[in-house]
Design goal:
seven-stranded antiparallel beta sheet; alpha+beta
Length: 171
């Protein structure tokens, strides 16, 4: 009986690992656009292809090195939201386009509106929000990912984006 339980537990763990690995679709973020394979046509009707972008700032009396191997606790303890920049939207693409390689631009009209300030605000809307700025931190959320809760990015002085994932867990 004990060996049967071990086999079931092992099989369950293997299935969970395979499910997690297979469901971890690509999310690519640059200073100009995002590609998110988690979005799809079926989710458009449910308004589930969403994104929220918050600019972050380093907390007072903190130092954070974006070029080091940061862990989740360091990111979460040293960064705070900058209330001057928050944008959100529900992504929609044209018929015949695919989410697997669709670039959603920050500085171009994608065919939908970006809201700002808060999700309850329907007044402040715009067709574009502008590129992510150099030497700034941003938090991306509501991306439809199963494993990753947030993606923090730092845009360095030469416009290269450094990404740091924060997972759904108690770090």
């Amino acid at each position: 009986m004990k060996s049967y339980c071990k086999i079931l537990i092992t099989a369950g763990c293997i299935f969970l690992c395979l499910f997690t690995a297979c469901s971890n679709k690509k999310v690519e973020i640059t200073s100009e656009y995002i590609i998110n394979e988690n979005w799809n046509k079926a989710n458009e009707e449910a308004l589930a292809n969403s994104i929220t972008i918050n600019r972050m700032k380093v907390r007072e009396d903190s130092i954070i090195n974006a070029f080091s191997d940061l862990d989740q606790s360091e990111l979460l303890s040293k960064l705070e939201e900058d209330s001057m920049f928050m944008h959100y939207t529900n992504i929609r693409i044209k018929e015949g386009e695919s989410y697997s390689n669709k670039k959603i631009y920050f500085n171009r009209d994608n065919g939908f509106y970006w809201g700002s300030k808060s999700r309850n605000n329907s007044i402040d809307r715009s067709k574009k929000i502008g590129n992510l700025q150099n030497n700034n931190w941003y938090k991306f959320s509501n991306l439809g990912t199963i494993v990753v809760q947030y993606i923090y990015v730092y845009v360095d002085s030469i416009n290269h984006v450094h990404s740091f994932n924060v997972f759904h867990s108690n770090y």
